[in-house]
Amino acid sequence: MIDETDISQELAFYNKERAFKVIENLQKRHMNGFYAENRKEALTIAMEMVPPEAVVARGDSMSVDQIGLLAEIAKRNQNKIIDPFQTDNQGHWLPEPERVRMQRETYFADILIAGTNAITLDGKLVNIDGSGNRVSAMVFGPSKVILIIGVNKIVQDVEAGLERIHQYAAPVNAKRHAMKNHVPEFGTVPCTRTGVCTDCRSDWKICNYTVIIEGALPKHKGRINVILVGEALGI
Asked: Which CATH entry fits the domain spanning 8-229: 3.40.50.450, 3.30.300.130, 3.90.850.10, 3.40.50.10420?
């Protein structure tokens, strides 16, 4: 008997078709795109892109953590890792001076691993940062960028991407930092209390630097590598 309440196969087909459309358009923009059915496959693809001895830096990303990429690189014990967002057992970040130093050191790494806030069907990367360290490194930092992106972040266009960030990703991420990383100031941002963006002027607003990556010059072809995963990942 067919279980008509289970639409997992339909969703897998839908998400894969959308992902391949994105990948096709990324290639036209001089960026690489890869599809992974699941987290395990995404980890395998990403690890093949990280050669021994390469210095690897991490931008703040739940998606990177969810596929276990940084942990797998560390386990291999062949790469120097720059992780400004490492935490202690209680979730506290490193002291501010050390964390900022590592964020600046990120620009001189060989590889940046990170996620993205949204990706459009026509292959544009849409991101908003609080401090700007992640997006600036994506634009002009390490010579290779590996982005782990769940299919839940595929949107119709840039406008939809910005809407997704303002109305969902930013409030949830700010709340995460307040609750998990023990930075209560982020919890004072209006959207963390209401769930609605008010285009606030809070001192601790998480939406300060908006970057749309539309592509790369031919000489930088393949610098940005997007791994689209057929699962919901990140925020």
From this structure: 3.40.50.10420
Structure tokens at 15: 């998400």
Q: What's the whole-model pTM score?
A: 0.96
Average pLDDT over residues 84-101: 94
Secondary structure (H, E, C), the chain: CCCCCCCHHHHHHHHHHHHHHHHHHHHHCCCEEEEECCHHHHHHHHHHCCCCCCCEEECCCHHHHHCCHHHHHHHHCCCCEECCCCECCCCCECCHHHHHHHHHHHHHCCEEEECCCEEECCCCEEEEECCCHHHHHHHHCCCEEEEEEEHHHEECCHHHHHHHHHHHHHHHHHHHHHHHCCCHHHHHCHHHHHCCCCCCCCCCCCCCEEEEECCCCHHHCCCEEEEEECCCCCC
Q: In what order do the strands lie in the sheet with 118-120?
A: 154-155, 118-120, 125-129, 209-213
Per-residue model confidence as pLDDT tens digits over 144-182:
999 999 999 999 999 999 999 999 999 999 999 999 999
170-124-169 Cα angle (round to 5): 10
| C-alpha–C-alpha distance, residues 66 and 149, integer Å | 11
Strands 144-150 and 224-229: parallel
Q: How far is CA 38 from the centre of its chain?
A: 16
Query: What are the structure tokens assigned to 77, written together?
Result: 């014990």
Domain map of the chain by residue range?
Answer: 8-229
